[in-house]
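Example (one chain per record):
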Amino acid sequence: MIGILEALDCKDTPKAREIEDTVENVGNKFDHIQEAVVEKQHALNAAVTASQDVNHNIEALLNWVNDTEVCINNSHLRTSTWFSVGVPDSKRQIYSYF
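Predicted structure:
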């Protein structure tokens, strides 16, 4: 736009300065909007990464709970088997805690 005004040799008119100021203001607003969009994009990427970390940690916790449940169930099976085979009382008491 400014190039056209310069070519027409009317850059120093009040209307030309008004148009130039308007174009500059629009450009500045666009730059600010573009910066805000980039900031929001970074925030969104950070939120997605955090969400993935939370999902991973929940999955790890669920695996741990399942493994713990299996261990507890297996220890109950062992202690009930030992009771039936005549394991001494002292060992039964120790293993009953696991």
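Caption: Residues 2-96 form one domain.
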